[in-house]
Specification:
Blueprint lengths: L3 E2 L13 E6 L2 E6 L8 H14 L6 E9 L9 E4 L8 E3 L3 E4 L3 E4 L8 H17 L3 H11 L4 H4 L30 H8 L19 E8 L7 H10 L4 E5 L11 E9 L10 H17 L3 H6 L3 H38 L4 H9 L8 H5 L1 H8 L4 E5 L6 H17 L2 H4 L3 E7 L10 H13 L7 H11 L7 H12 L4 E7 L7 H17 L2 E7 L11 E4 L4 H11 L11 H15 L3 H11 L5 H9 L4 H15 L3 H12 L4 E2 H8 L16 H6 L5 E3 L5 E4 L2 H9 L1 H4 L3 H13 L12 H10 L3 H12 L7 H8 L2 H11 L19 H8 L2 H8 L1
Parallel strand pairs: 4-11, 5-9, 6-9, 9-10, 12-15, 12-16, 13-14, 14-15
Antiparallel strand pairs: 1-2, 2-3, 4-10, 5-11, 7-8, 17-19, 18-19
Helix pairs in contact: 3-7, 10-13, 15-17, 15-18, 19-20, 20-21, 20-22, 21-23, 29-31, 31-33
Protein name: Purine and uridine phosphorylase
InterPro entries: GPIID_WHD, NACHT_NTPase, NLR-like, NPHP3-like_N, Nucleoside_phosphorylase_sf, P-loop_NTPase
Keywords: Repeat
């Protein structure tokens, strides 16, 4: 088909293609074939890629070859040309998709459309054919003249017979025998030409000339020789397929090209090679005719194929990065979901809240101590650190966790060592959230969710329990931990305040599990505790934690600048302050902090000296410091929140405290103008209260503060139980709860969000009433005698902690006020209501 043949050029070293170069209708043309014997999308893609690399000025390609037609419209010797049709871009990859239920198959492999220069030329050529006819026969005659040896094969002869059999009629061989290599050669040739097939099963069709079809081509990686299968695929595409072939899908996604196929068979069992040469010739002739209607200038204006391919590649990379980012976001969200589900307490948040108050440079003595460095370097070692209250055990724990992270996590990849770091902060007030299975779940969460990908077993564990809102058993958690441990070379487990870990049974459970881990892996355990807890464990190393004098002085020097201006420049007073506090603190870091806090606000040197002279030591000093702090609180704004935090039956959130303080006796709803600012609440409490930055829980500055104020609660807060009980009953009597229990989980959770005190008031009002029944009878009766309010309170009271599906509807129905009073043991109120 070339009008002019050009000399061959030497190929680059990486290019193994064989090219034919020439001109056709003023266009320079590069012709390349697949290697002999190779077919399929992968081979086509490889050949095209090498060609574009060698000839970067190529604008577009024409994929010219043979294909199998889909009757009845398409016949042997016809030409099928790719054009977009019926929502498809022109070529579909028929073997790419997904199998679904009921034996259905959803197609997912649709490819790019041909270049616009080709599509517009096809429109022009189709119009020319309608008016003047095709030049294909003329080009075939030229072949016969120029290359007479090719004429018998490539120009149509009377020996080429177009017979299309019914789709359900399979090819027949000589006397029904299967063809073998032993059959006479003439028998095998006759078999291939359907000599023994029943011609009565052939479709009756009127003879016609060759036709050019425009539409959908299906591409795949396997030969189709089954008419039923052919029709099934065509039906899947809405009956729009004209032709099947095996290379186009390898190019159309990246390489700008058009596909031209001469039809040589019907993709059925009668398939033979008789029409292949002629089909190839008519396809090549059409390609030449197509180029005749494309102006060379139009080709020049078209972007180079290499540039298009790079643009597509860049676009794919951009999409891939976007998908990776989306997947990362989804993965992060799933990690967050799993972390919240596994662990009721966010230990990472606690670590952050504690360590942000770390005084740089302190604690170095601990990190340099032989017992710590030995634990750090010894497989399956246990370090037990004891210290009296207030010496800074929790801060030391936070420092160790940060040190482990800095020491190991940045060197893991380079050394190909996987090190796990797990930490738990035991908090007595949250013991209901720190049962042994809760602690195991937290260990599992920290180990599993630090993996690059979330382990499949963790996803399966979540899926098994999430829908039914159940919790994993202790055995399930233990098994998962043992499995995850295999992914680590070493795991450090740091547990703070073991003495605050619930009851003895819980403590023994978690210790037993951790010691078992040491038997199967390199697990290095570190505990902190008051001296009253000392587990029996062979080879356990002991280390006493105390407030190192250098650390205390370093802290004091960093804080002296925050005292009154009268201290500034007075080196004698500064030295006196530092020395006196160090002596009084006597190894208790907390006491040094409290004493420094007590000096703030002292505006004269005399007042500062007086405060220094009154400082005590040890537990007596702590009590004195807390008493002094309470005396500095001179407003109801501060004493009321302190009362709530000290006397509440569980840890409160900042939202709960703000709403609780806004409750006014005799009201039916909260006044939105009656809320205190959280920072004002905290700052007015003389450093006795803190708000955890991330968890937003509000608590006393230290466990010793909780101990002190609970011991002194009758002195400082004589009406606490009556006031809190009255606030809870007032809240439960709000109009919002008169409609009764929520009808579903979603509505119930919305109620908890909208009314932060509702959960606390419902669960604990009765406990606060127990010692003050007589003073709150009127409020209690108002609750008991209203069915809707009673129903609301009882639903929340009996909500299951497991939060299974429809959990809000699994509470006792028909509870009355007498039932509620009986539940809390309020005998006087029961008698009052019944009478």
């Amino acid at each position: 088909m070339l009008d002019q043949r050009h000399d061959d050029l030497a190929n680059p070293a990486h290019d193994h293609n064989a090219y034919t170069l020439g001109a056709m209708h003023k266009h320079n043309v590069v012709i390349v074939c697949l290697p002999k014997g190779e077919v399929g999308t992968n081979s086509a893609a490889a050949v095209a890629t090498r060609m574009i690399s060698t000839f970067p000025s190529i604008r577009f390609g024409l994929m010219v070859g043979i294909g199998g037609g889909v009757p009845p419209n398409v016949r042997l010797g016809d030409v099928v040309v790719i054009t977009p049709a019926n929502g498809f871009p022109g070529v579909v990859q028929w073997d790419m998709g997904k199998a679904e239920q009921m034996d259905t198959f959803t197609q997912t492999g649709a490819l790019n459309t041909p270049p616009s220069a080709v599509l517009t030329a096809l429109t022009k050529l189709e119009c020319k054919h309608d008016m003047e006819g095709s030049s294909i026969s003329q080009y075939l005659e030229e072949i016969a003249l120029k290359w007479p040896r090719l004429a018998p094969k490539y120009t149509r002869s009377e020996t080429l017979e177009d017979v299309c059999f019914e789709a359900n009629y399979n090819h027949a061989t000589n006397e029904g025998k299967k063809r073998t290599h032993e059959d006479p050669i003439e028998w095998r040739n006759e078999d291939a030409c359907c000599r023994f097939c029943d011609r009565s099963r052939a479709l009756k069709r009127q003879p016609r000339e060759m036709v050019v079809h425009y539409g959908l081509i299906a591409s795949g990686n396997q030969v189709i020789k089954d008419a039923t299968f052919r029709d099934k695929i065509n039906s899947r595409m809405g009956g729009n397929i004209l032709c099947f072939e095996m290379e186009a899908a390898g190019l159309m996604n990246n390489f700008p090209c058009a596909v031209i196929r001469g039809i040589c068979d019907y993709c059925d069992s009668h398939k033979n090679n008789g029409w292949q040469e002629h089909a190839a010739a008519v396809a090549a002739a059409f390609a030449k005719e197509l180029l005749s209607v494309i102006p060379p200038a139009r080709v020049t204006d078209t972007r180079a194929a290499a540039e298009v391919m790079k643009h597509i590649s860049d676009g794919v990379d951009l999409i891939r990065r976007g998908l990776f980012s989306l997947q990362s976001t989804q993965e992060d969200q799933h990690r967050k979901t799993l972390r919240c589900w596994l662990s009721p307490i966010d230990y990472e948040a606690i670590q952050g809240d504690i360590y942000r108050n770390y005084q740089p440079g302190t604690g170095k003595w601990f990190l340099d101590d032989f017992q710590f460095t030995h634990w750090l370097a010894t497989p399956s070692e246990t370090l037990f650190c004891t210290g009296i209250q207030g010496v800074g055990k929790t801060m030391m724990t936070a420092m160790v966790v940060d040190n482990l992270r800095a020491r190991f996590l940045h060197t893991i990849d380079s050394q190909h060592v996987k090190i796990g770091i797990v930490f738990l902060y035991c908090i007595y007030e949250r013991k209901n959230e720190q049962k042994s299975d809760d602690l195991l779940a937290s260990i599992l969460s920290q180990l599993a969710l630090e993996q690059e990908t979330i382990p499949k077993s963790i996803r399966e564990l979540y899926n098994r329990h999430h829908q039914g809102r159940t919790r994993p058993s202790k055995q399930e958690l233990s098994n998962e931990i043992h499995s995850i441990m295999e992914k680590y070379d070493t795991v450090f487990v740091v547990v703070d305040a073991l003495d605050e870990c619930g009851d003895d049974a819980t403590r023994q459970d978690i210790l037993c599990e951790l010691f078992q881990l040491q038997q199967i892996s390199d697990t290095r355990l570190m505990f902190t505790s008051r001296p009253n807890i000392l587990p029996e464990h062979d080879g356990m190393r002991l280390l006493t934690i105390y407030a190192n004098e250098k650390d205390v002085r370093r802290y004091l020097r960093s804080q002296i600048g925050h005292l009154s201006k009268v201290v500034e420049g007075d080196e004698v007073l500064q030295h006196k302050t530092e020395t006196r506090i160090v002596e009084s603190a006597n190894g208790i870091f907390l006491l040094a902090q409290l004493y420094m806090s007590s000096l703030r606000g002292k505006e004269t040197k005399k007042a500062i000296y007086r405060e220094l002279d009154q400082m005590g030591t040890g537990n007596e000093g702590l009590d004195q410091a807390y008493h002094s702090a309470y005396n500095r609180i001179d407003s109801e704004l501060a004493r009321s929140p302190l009362c709530w935090v000290v006397c509440a039956r569980r840890v409160l959130t900042a939202d709960e405290l703000q709403h609780a303080l806004a409750i006014e006796p005799g009201t039916r709803s909260l006044d939105p103008t009656n809320f205190y600012d959280l920072q004002e609440i905290v700052s007015s409490c003389a450093c006795l209260m803190v708000v955890d930055t991330i968890s937003k829980n509000i608590r006393l500055v230290h466990a010793t503060a909780k101990d002190y104020f609970q011991r002194k609660s009758l002195d400082y807060f004589p009406d606490a139980q009556k006031n809190i009980a009255a606030s809870c009953l007032t809240y439960l009597g709000y109009a919002a709860f008169e409609h009764g229990a929520c009808p579903n989980d979603e509505t119930f959770e919305e109620r908890l969000q909208q009314f932060p005190v509702f959960d606390y008031a419902s669960r604990y009002w009765g406990h606060h009433c127990r010692d003050v029944e007589g003073s709150i009878q009127t409020l209690a009766t108002a609750l008991f005698l209203h069915k809707g309010r009673t129903s609301s309170a009882s639903q929340c009271l009996f909500i299951s902690e497991s939060r299974r599906f429809s959990y809000s509807q699994r509470t006792p129905m028909g509870f009355t006020g007498v039932h509620l009073a009986s539940y809390f043991g309020l005998h006087n109120i029961i008698a009052y209501v019944i009478i």
